[in-house]
Amino acid sequence: MQANHQNTPQISDGPSAPAQKSISKEKLLPCKYRTGRVLGGGSYSVVKEAVHVETKELYAAKIINKKLVEKKPEFVKNEITILKRISCGHPNILRLVDYFETVNNLYLITELATGGELFDRICAQGSFYEADAARLIRTTASAVNYLHENGIVHRDLKPENLLYRSKDPESELLIADFGLSQFYDDSQYYMLMTACGTPEYMAPEIFRRVGYGKSVDIWSIGVITYFLLCGYSPFVRSSQVEVIEAVLANQYEFHEAYWSGVSSTAKDFIRKCLEDDPAKRLTAIEAIQHPFLSTKIPATANLLPKVRENFNARKKFRKAFNAVRAFNTLKKDIEPKSR
């Protein structure tokens, strides 16, 4: 991979214009990073492990295909600008290390979180109590409050985007993936209109297309809290249409079989995060001050057996659902077209 000399591998004020179709060889320099195994990906990017050629330090490289984003360059610009603003400002936010572009791709180099996803880590433990969930949510709410104070809405908070910095038992939890994040000015109340995110974690006002603001992140925190305490989403359904219908109807419940060992304080916190009216929903600072996050929670029942059972069942369902969807797509592709 070769870096464009016009954009040296440093954090800049934002992505420059897409490279011209032909760039003279004199303007190209060897890239400072060598990419390796794939860590994840999305519709227009792939995330790979990257090693700095000189220091041998490991990082994560988000590689964005220029062709796929040429009609929506604002997404990339926002992500770069947002990461620049918040990097190093809060211990629980993934840090941007570098940014540059090549002829075909844009590269975002961030610290490499090696500790795994939140729920995988929880399920690998020997126990998990309500107090543990409160501690994790307090950390997340603190980072979200920092984002909101900086005029940023994350818009894609979910367990998969909560990563541990390292495998150390005391490792910090990090909010990652700011690809859908957006700047937001409180004076332009409810100016965001784009429907984006993961349906199970999206607030009702996003589906209603009436405009939304920072409170959508608090809704997501409510869903994550629910998920942490029982192992399944409050709006889990058999199809996305049913998920959206349940969100719009604010239709969820605390099933006795899985919630009997959870405090009324935790349930109250969830209800106030999942308030249908965004104006009545907790703010980030109010969430931090809620008794569930601000007071010491006594040791109660070990929630892990039921959480793990439900989480593993969810993974199996998702795997089976994706397999059926892939089969149906393949079947559709190979079936002869009717004339």
Automatic annotation (TrEMBL):
The keyword Kinase applies. Keywords: ATP-binding, Kinase, Nucleotide-binding, Serine/threonine-protein kinase, Transferase. Residues 33-293 form the Protein kinase domain. Residues 1-13 have a biased composition (Polar residues). ATP binds at K62. It comes from the Eukaryota. GO terms for molecular function: ATP binding; protein serine/threonine kinase activity. Residues 1-23 are annotated as: Disordered. The keyword Membrane does not apply. Belongs to the protein kinase superfamily. PANTHER family: SERINE/THREONINE-PROTEIN KINASE. This is Calcium/calmodulin-dependent protein kinase Cmk1. The lineage of its organism: Eukaryota, Fungi, Dikarya, Ascomycota, Taphrinomycotina. The gene is cmk1.
